[in-house]
Each structure stands twice: as structure tokens, then as C-alpha cells.
Design brief:
By secondary structure, the protein is an alpha/beta fold. It has 5 domains: 129 residues, P-loop containing nucleotide triphosphate hydrolases (Rossmann fold), CATH 3.40.50; 40 residues; 152 residues, 3-Layer(aba) Sandwich (Rossmann fold); 70 residues, no CATH class; 69 residues. It is 45% helix and 19% strand. It has 20 helices and 18 strands. Strands 5-6-7-3-8-9 form a 6-stranded mixed beta sheet, with helices on both faces. A 6-stranded mixed beta sheet has the order 14-15-16-12-17-18, sandwiched between helices. The protein has a 3-stranded antiparallel beta sheet with strand order 2-1-4. A hairpin with a 5-residue loop joins strand 17 and strand 18.
Length: 649
């Protein structure tokens, strides 16, 4: 049975038609990627499914009782709650069960006979529902989710008003992932995630039992998680089987077929028109020519797009100029170190970047990637060592926050400021290639969206004709088509590239060298550590290297554990020898072990009642302590059962 059916949907905002005769079906357990140019209606589809908007025409049919977890692009919080309180609010159904269990426990104290029996049955059902919903593990899941998305423990009790925009987005994602949902709708979930957090999200989605639709420009994520791709184009949705790479290959094959068909159609029409022109006035052929003309006119009338060539979505189009620098050494870092008080980002960092090299920097958030760029550009002083760029280099700098744009200037004024010698017409032509046309060029830079700012900064880079491109997260806010255009242009660029990025697809496609900052050899966050990768594809090779190290470490630990066990047993075990972990129960009779099992089961029942105590579940420390005690008792009960089975034969 389908989870959601969108049937013949039409949505418009004023005179702008966003979706028209759009059909889409979502199925259980499928992980689906959704792609399309910015503004094509992807987020609108999510709002239709959640009921935030209704279609002008058509129906949205949802499975009865469907539980939806929805992550918008901008998460909103009241500001009064802490991070942990917001996470608890995200599992309100579990908290509600806890309260019901707590209330039922107190009500049973004053009941007798059939009333008590009925209430006990209700209590058992509540405990079962609580366990099925993950009630005994939800606090652990909260901690795991927050850690996976980059929240250190010191932030857990911080109010949301103290969080940055990126942290709020990550908290919104963490909250949605905790929901007991049948369908996750994630709108740009990797915004503000570093590579480590994105890889954690990938694993979560792969293990998630429900369905998920992911709007994302992260092509690597779509490759890893998606079994289908929904493409939103020309106000409709088209579903492609396979992950993102398969979708690209299939779409290119189809495009070639469509181009061939277009050529055949044009040739057929031209041949028919030529035949008509040559024979319309010829005796004996006049009737045939008129018949052909009637057939052609009817064909073109019934199929108005018969001669139209398939076109791609409008996207930015540009290329960088030729590198004119004669300097061989572009950048030299010698024993470079940078600290902020007791916090050391890196130290003794030494390497060279030569002309024409494509050098990337990646690593977790807050480990010093952007700081290194600012040190290299002379915008910040190092704590130790030196870093300097070659002399007389024309440097084009792309800042991820748009700080290099003057908010008081218009788009046109900002573009002209890069190269005042260029004519207004030529600059406007360049701006047109970056989708700034008509009155768009007179917008103030301060009023631009994130994507528009990024496109304008890219346009400024092109106009500056740089020898060296220094870019901080250049693919942020760009849709996939624009990212691919940027990559094609960078591949044609003959100058030097120094780029900070979390876009794994981009890293593999563009770079020939990579430095990973702020992780240890197993990929865990570790300030001050650095690693160089000099083989392509750079990120894929780095990821494989880390995976091999983890596997080797696990094998060594397993081997060491096995060796320890073998050394501890010099003689062959008798068939009925008591396992080491059960020997402490040898002094008890079978009857005594039965009694111990009964007592421990009663203890566990009483502890389960405490999970419903409001004072307990509102205190994270007490709740965690109770969980730990409960787990220990469960483990002890498991051993008692094994001891009983061993002794009873």
C-alpha cells in the first residue's frame, strides 16, 4: 500500500505556476532523493504532504495514521528550552507514556479486586507500548544522535537562544530523527553538517526502518542512500530508478536518444515541405502534395512541441580565464601553528602549493579550515611559523558567508567594482550568465538570498581573472546543475585552486591533493591532527584508508581477545565444565537460583515503575543512572537464567 499519493496536483502562487498536473507516489521503506533546480517546487511538495498548504487542483491522499517527521530548511525554536529539553519535546509520545505509567502505578495503590486487575492489565499494556516505542533506550538514543550531529556535551544544557544558525539547523534535524515516524521528509538535511556528521546521517538513513524523501544537493549522500530519484522539472515529477549516479547516466542516455529523435523529426518535416514545394503545382502530383501538406499541418497542430528540442533547466554558465602567473611557488607554509588560548587548531604545519595544483582542505566543523585560508590571505596572524602567498599573484577569493559583498551596493555596482575598465554592457552580459537579468542587477547585495550571493561572488571571481582561486565552501547554496557547471569550469581552469569543502563529490571531481584537518587516523575528531592525501580521487581514497584502519584495529582487538582466552585454557574443557562467568553461582542450589530469579524479576518490575516517575524522567542524570542500574540488573538476570539452564541440565 502506498504511503502518499499526489494526484493531478496544480499549485500556483499568484501568477506563478509552480506545479501543474503533477503526479507522485511514495512507497513504504523506500529512501528516495529529490532533485531539481532551486525554485522548482521541491519544498512545496513537502508542504503539500504535511498539509501546510493545499493544492489549487488535485488530491493529496495519505495512508491512515501516517506518522511524518518533517525537517524544513529553517528550524524554529522558542528559545526558552535547552537543547536536551527540545530533544525530549521531540519524543513527546514516549514522555506521555511515562506519565501514564506513573499515574497507573499510583492508582493501583488504592484499588482492589477486579478494578485492580483491570488497572494492572492497563499498566502492562502501557509498559509494553513504552518498551516497543524505545522508552528504555530513548535517552541513550538522544545522546547518540546529538553526538553524531556534532553537539558536544557542554551544549546539551545550553538554551537554544545561545546557538548559532547552523547549530539550530542541526538540532532541528536531531529532533526529527528521534521521532517514531513512518516517513521522513528532509529538506536539505546536510546544510551545516561537516563530513563526519553527514556520514553519520547516511548510516542512520540506511538503518532507518521507515521511508524517507531527501531534498539534497549532496550527490554523495544521494548515491549512498537512495534507491530512486525524483526529478522536479517543468512543474512535474519524474521518478528514475537507482541512485544519483545511475540517474545521471540514464538521463544522459535518454537525452542523446531525444536529440536523435529531434533530428529525425526535423529532417522528416524538411523533406515533407521540400516534397510539397516541388510538387504542389506539378500535374499528376498536385493531389498527393496537398494531401501531404494536410497531414503535416494536422501533425504540427496536434503536437505543438513536435519540433521543440529538449532543454535543460536554466543554470549558471561561465568559464575562468587563462592563468597568466609566472610564479611556480603559489603558497608556502612553514611550521605553521594557530591557537586560541588553550585551543590549538594545528601546529608545525609545513607544505608547498605549486602552480596549477588543485589543493583541498576538509575536516570537521571548528577545526581550523577557514582559519587557514584567512592566515594564507594575511587576514589573521599565526601563533607560530609562517604562511605566505607568492608575490604579484592575482587572487580571487570566495568567502562562504558573503562577507566580501558590500550590502549597500547594487549587484551591477558590485560586479563593476572588480574590473572598472569593463563596459557596463559586458558586465551585464556576465551577470546574465549567473542568472542576474533585467531588474535583478539593481537589487542591493544586502537583500540577496544565500544562493544569489554565492552566484554574484562567483561572477566577481570570473571578472577578476585570477591566477589563484581561494574558495571557502563554493558549492553552498548552489543547486546540483549549478554545482556541475562550476566543476566543469574549474576543470577547464589552468590556474591554482585552494578550496575548503565538505562536498565529497566535489572533492573527488576537482582536487588532486587534500589535507584533512582535525581528525585522528580513524576519522574521529581530534584537534591539531592533520593528514595529507596525494592520490585521486582524494576523498574516496581517504575514506577507504580510514575504513581499512578501522577494520585492521577491530581484527587486532578480536585476535588479542582470542589469544587471551586461549592462553587462559591450557587443558581441554570437560563437556559439562561450568563457564567462567557462571562459576560464582556454583555454591547455590537449583532451588536457590530459582528464588534469586524471582526476586530479581520483582526488582526489575519495581524499577520499571520508577521510569514513570515524573521526578525521574525530568532529571536527565537520575534517568541515566536508573537506566544504567536497570541494564545491570537485566544482565544479572540473564546470567541467572543461563546458570539455571546449565545446572538443570
Amino acid at each position: 500500500m502506498s504511503l502518499v499519493i499526489l494526484n493531478d496536483i496544480h499549485v500556483s502562487f499568484g501568477s506563478e505556476i509552480v506545479l501543474d498536473k503533477m503526479n507522485l507516489t511514495l512507497h513504504p521503506n523506500e529512501k528516495v532523493g529529490m532533485v531539481g533546480a532551486n525554485g522548482t517546487g521541491k519544498s512545496t511538495i513537502f508542504k503539500l504532504i504535511t498539509g501546510q498548504i493545499t493544492p489549487d487542483v488535485g488530491k493529496v491522499i495519505k495512508q491512515k495514521g501516517l506518522r511524518i517527521g518533517y525537517l524544513p530548511q529553517e528550524s524554529a525554536f522558542s528559545g526558552e528550552n535547552t537543547v536536551l529539553e527540545e530533544m525530549h519535546a521531540g519524543v513527546e509520545h514516549i514522555v506521555k507514556l511515562q506519565k501514564q505509567i506513573h499515574n497507573a502505578t499510583h492508582e493501583m495503590e488504592n484499588l482492589h479486586g477486579s478494578d485492580l486487575k483491570s488497572k494492572m492489565a492497563q499498566y502492562d499494556r502501557l509498559c509494553h507500548d513504552f518498551e516497543v516505542a524505545g522508552g528504555y533506550a530513548y535517552e541513550t538514543n538522544i545522546q547518540t544522535t546529538l553526538a553524531g550531529l556534532g553537539f558536544d556535551e557542554e551544549l546539551h544544557h545550553a538554551k537554544t537562544t545561545a546557538l548559532s544558525g547552523g547549530q539550530l539547523s542541526r538540532l532541528g534535524l536531531a529532533q526529527v530523527l528521534m521521532l517514531d515516524a513512518d516517513l521522513l521528509l528532509l529538506d536539505e538535511p546536510t546544510n551545516h553538517l561537516d563530513i563526519q556528521a553527514t556520514e553519520w546521517l547516511e548510516k542512520f538513513l540506511l538503518n532507518f526502518n521507515g521511508a524517507a524523501v531527501i531534498i539534497s544537493h549532496d550527490r554523495h549522500l544521494l548515491d549512498k542512500t537512495s534507491c530512486k530519484i525524483i526529478e522536479i522539472e517543468k512543474r512535474k515529477a519524474k521518478v528514475w530508478k537507482g541512485n544519483y549516479s545511475t540517474y545521471v547516466q540514464t538521463r544522459e542516455t535518454l537525452k542523446l536518444q531525444q536529440d536523435r529523435e529531434h533530428i529525425k523529426r526535423v529532417e522528416m518535416v524538411e523533406r515533407t515541405r521540400d516534397f510539397i514545394a516541388r510538387n504542389i503545382n506539378q500535374e499528376g502530383m498536385r493531389k498527393t502534395a496537398r494531401g501531404r501538406r494536410t497531414q503535416l499541418d494536422r501533425l504540427l497542430k496536434d503536437n505543438p512541441d513536435f519540433l521543440d528540442k529538449s532543454t535543460d533547466q536554466k543554470t549558471i554558465s561561465f568559464s575562468f580565464g587563462t592563468n597568466k602567473s609566472g610564479s611556480e611557488l603559489i603558497l608556502r607554509s612553514e611550521n605553521l601553528g594557530k591557537s586560541f588560548g588553550d585551543l590549538t587548531l594545528f601546529e608545525n604545519l609545513s607544505f608547498d602549493i605549486l602552480r596549477g595544483e588543485r589543493f583541498g582542505i576538509t575536516g570537521p566543523n571548528g577545526t581550523g579550515k577557514s582559519t587557514f585560508l584567512r592566515l594564507a590571505l594575511g587576514q589573521m596572524e599565526p601563533t607560530s611559523g609562517t604562511v605566505r602567498m607568492g608575490k604579484s599573484l592575482r587572487i580571487g577569493y570566495l568567502d562562504q558567508h558573503g562577507d566580501v559583498l558590500n550590502p549597500e551596493r547594487t549587484v551591477l555596482e558590485e560586479a563593476i567594482s572588480v574590473n572598472p575598465d569593463l563596459s557596463t554592457e559586458k558586465v551585464r552580459g556576465r551577470l546574465g550568465a549567473f542568472l542576474f537579468s533585467g531588474d535583478d542587477v539593481f537589487k542591493l547585495c544586502g537583500d540577496l538570498s544565500g544562493g544569489q550571493k554565492n552566484r554574484l561572488m562567483l561572477c566577481k571571481l570570473v571578472l577578476s581573472e585570477p591566477d589563484v582561486l581561494v574558495m571557502d565552501e563554493p558549492t553552498n547554496h548552489l543547486d546540483i546543475a549549478s554545482r556541475e557547471m562550476l566543476e566543469e569550469s574549474l576543470n577547464d581552469y589552468e590556474g591554482t585552486i585552494i578550496v575548503v569543502s565538505h562536498d565529497r563529490y566535489f572533492l573527488d571531481r576537482i582536487l588532486d591533493k587534500l589535507i584533512v584537518i582535525g581528525t585522528d587516523e580513524l576519522g574521529n575528531r581530534c584537534l591539531g591532527k592533520t593528514e595529507f592525501i596525494n592520490t585521486t580521487p582524494v576523498y574516496s581514497n581517504y575514506a577507504s584508508l580510514v575504513a581499512e584502519r578501522i577494520e585492521t584495529k577491530q581484527k587486532k582487538e578480536k585476535s588479542k581477545s582470542g589469544s587471551t582466552k586461549r592462553r587462559g585454557s591450557n587443558t581441554k574443557k570437560p563437556k559439562n565444565q561450568t563457564p567462567e562467568e557462571l562459576k560464582r553461582f556454583n555454591k547455590y542450589s537449583v532451588e536457590k537460583i530459582e528464588e534469586m530469579i524471582s526476586e530479581l524479576e520483582e526488582e526489575l518490575a519495581k524499577m520499571r515503575e520508577r521510569f514513570g516517575d515524573e521526578n525521574i524522567y525530568k532529571n536527565p542524570d537520575q534517568f541515566a543512572e536508573l537506566q544504567e542500574q536497570y541494564s545491570a540488573k537485566e544482565a544479572e538476570l540473564d546470567l541467572l537464567y543461563h546458570a539455571y539452564e546449565h545446572r538443570a541440565g
